[in-house]
Design brief:
Elements: H1 17-44, E1 67-69, E2 72-83, E3 86-87, E4 92-93, E5 98-108, E6 114-117, E7 122-124, H2 135-140, E8 146-149, E9 153-163, E10 171-174, E11 196-199, E12 203-204
Parallel strand pairs: 2-12
Antiparallel strand pairs: 1-2, 2-5, 3-4, 5-9, 6-8, 7-10, 10-11
């Protein structure tokens, strides 16, 4: 019976332990790399370019031009209607009809204090109480009823209205202060008796 000859020891060097650990990890790493490459090719290859952004672009509005009434200068930054609800830090609620919301910049370019009053800012296209800011929605949104604006200062505020569902809103009618035109003056600064209309077509939804 032929003797079995033990195989000669391999001339290749022994694999260091740290490389063995790396080799053992390869079966896990390779599928992950492959899946990543596959996902990339699926996103770009079928259309010949990068994948489109899945986030829909929000509709935007251009701010109105500035309008001055009294000492205050108003710019409507945005106007939206068809808002189904209002939320704030401590409460939320639904409208009787639909909520409309305006973002308004109020600038005081004079050197003295002048007061911006919420109740005087009316929504155009509706009548009666609905044309005035809704007290509940304004409270939910933590908006002041009036703000004393310092000289050469401005504020940006929200206005919320609860209007009928079929209302055709066409803009915002703004009213500034009725303070004297200047130091020691006896007549108020120039103003529109019924407020100044800033036309704007509202965007629908929030």
């Amino acid at each position: 019976m032929a003797n079995r000859v033990a195989p000669a020891p391999s001339s290749r060097p022994t694999t260091p332990p740290h490389r063995l650990r790396a080799l053992r990890a390869l079966p896990l790493a390779l599928p992950l790399t492959f899946l990543a490459l596959l996902a990339t090719s699926c996103d770009t290859g079928s259309h010949g370019g990068t994948a489109p952004d899945a986030t829909p672009s929000a509709a935007t509005q251009s701010p109105s031009r500035p309008h001055q009434d009294g000492h205050l200068v108003f710019t409507v930054l945005s106007l939206r209607c068809g808002i189904p609800g209002v939320t704030g830090t401590h409460s939320e609620g639904e409208p009787s009809g639909q909520f409309c919301s305006a973002r308004l910049r109020v600038d005081n370019p004079s050197a003295d204090f002048h007061t911006y009053a919420v109740k005087d800012q009316r929504l155009e296209g509706v009548t009666g109480r609905a044309a005035r800011p809704d007290s509940f929605a304004m409270a939910v949104r933590r908006q002041h009823e009036s703000i004393s604006i310092g000289g050469h200062s401005l504020v940006e505020v929200e206005l919320w209205y609860d209007v009928p569902r079929d209302a055709k809103v066409t803009g915002l009618r703004v009213t500034g202060d009725r303070d004297p035109a200047g130091w020691m003056a006896t007549t108020p600064a120039a103003h529109a008796p019924d407020g100044l209309l800033i036309p704007m077509k509202p965007l629908m939804g929030w």
